[in-house]
Amino acid sequence: MLRMIPRRAMRFAVGCAMLVAVVSTAAPTARAAEPIEIFDAHLHYNWEPKPYYQLDEVLALFKKHRVTGILATSRPNTGTHALVDARSEGLQVVPFIRPYRVRADVQSWFGDPVIFDLVKDEFKRGYYRGIGEFHLSGKSAENEWVRKTVDFAVTNDLYLHAHADDEAVEILMRHNPKARIIWAHTGFGLSTDRVTARNILPCGASCRIAAASPTAPGN
Ligand SMILES: [Zn+2]
Q1: How many domains does the chain have?
Q2: 3-class DSSP state of 167
């Protein structure tokens, strides 16, 4: 029972949307016409330098399309702050710390001690549940600042939201076997029978749907 978010909404609500159907005891034909609630498990509300949509427009779109929960991230984290501070009725916000200030950080965050300081500073806000989405490829995950980030997440009971290949994910797990990883876009290149590692929550088929959006800005 999937209903895609319209293209306009997809411009900011990209990634793996976890779709939750409203439970009903009605007949199947009646159920199909009923509204569903959507938890968007991969939302970026980027403010670089300004948001494409104003906050009130975003919140209105959530209401219109029955998005009642979001895993919220942004570049920089200002967008996430705004979503949390809005305390919008009927919207559950699960904020994650993004290790990015600007788009260029996507390519270098894993070797930049300043970014690790950014993560620690953001964490002081007290409401974050994870770190990510971050991008990692292969041996770049070996970097000491990545290991520190993984350890920081474990110490502080945070999830890691990783857009990474399988080699990088294995390195993350090696850094700290207690790490809890949400594997973004798993469906890109891996068969489901390989997505079996403990503590890894794959985000497969639905990620693929959202990533296929022609208007999705990505990252
Ligand atoms: Zn993403």
Answers
A1: 1
A2: helix
CATH assignment of the domain containing 103:
3.20.20
Q: Is residue 2 part of a domain?
A: no
Assess if residue 216 is contained within a domain: no
For ligand 1, the distance from its centroid to the CA atom of residue 219, given in whole angstroms, is 4
Dump pLDDT digits (tens) for 31-75.
Answer: 666 778 999 999 999 988 888 899 999 999 999 999 999 999 999
Q: How far is the CA of 10 from the centre of ligand 1 (A)?
A: 12
In a domain, 72, yes or no: yes
CA of 196 to the centre of ligand 1 (A): 22
Contacts 24+ apart (CB under 8 A), 179-186: 179/150, 179/153, 179/154, 180/153, 182/41, 182/130, 182/132, 184/15, 184/16, 184/42, 184/132, 184/133, 185/15, 185/16, 185/211
Residue 48: inside a domain: yes
pTM score above 0.90: no
Distance from residue 44's CA to the centre of ligand 1 (Å): 7
Ligand 1 midpoint to CA 79 (Å): 14
Q: Is 182 helix (H, G, I), strand (E, B) or coil?
A: strand
Q: Residue 27 Cα, ligand 1 centroid: separation in angstroms?
A: 37
Q: Domain limits at 70?
A: 7-211
- Please give the full DSSP string across 44-104, using - where no structure is assigned: E--BSSSBSS-HHHHHHHHHHTTEEEEEEE-SSTHHHHHHHHH--TT-EEEEEE-S-SSGG
